[in-house]
Design brief:
By secondary structure, the chain is mostly helical. It has one domain. Helix content is 44%, strand content 11%. The protein is built from 3 helices and 2 strands; from the N terminus they run αβαβα. Helix 2 runs parallel beside helix 3. It is globular, with a radius of gyration of 15 Å. The two termini are 21 Å apart. The chain binds iron/sulfur cluster. The site of iron/sulfur cluster (SF4) has 9 residues, from loops.
Length: 94
């Protein structure tokens, strides 16, 4: 981690800001990799509206780095809608 990132991370920790978040959008996947840590069982998924609310809350909380992951995120039909929402909220708050 470079000095700037370390300083930002340390400052976020002192302020209680969730500096970096990984959001798993789905457990579903069309692959079966031997190294996968997901069980791919149906645990349900957050709705589009729930994810948008969460993204807004993340932006308000000061999240700087957002990783969208899964599962295979492209199995969500609303993925690009979620991505656009994430960009709108998180870039607006920066
Ligand atoms: S989620 Fe990723 S690692 Fe797991 S099976 Fe799918 S492609 Fe492989």
């Amino acid at each position: 981690m470079n000095a700037l990132m370390q300083e930002m991370s340390d400052r976020a920790l002192r302020l209680g800001v969730p500096f970096s978040v990984q959001l798993d959008l789905t457990y579903r996947c069309n692959e079966q990799c031997v190294h996968c840590y997901l069980d791919h069982d149906d645990h349900g998924e957050m709705t589009t509206a729930e994810i948008k609310d969460l993204l807004r809350e993340m932006a308000e909380a000061g999240v700087v780095i957002l990783t969208l992951s899964g599962g295979e995120i492209f199995l969500r039909k609303d993925f690009f809608e979620i991505l656009e929402c994430a960009r709108t909220y998180l870039l607006a708050s920066s």
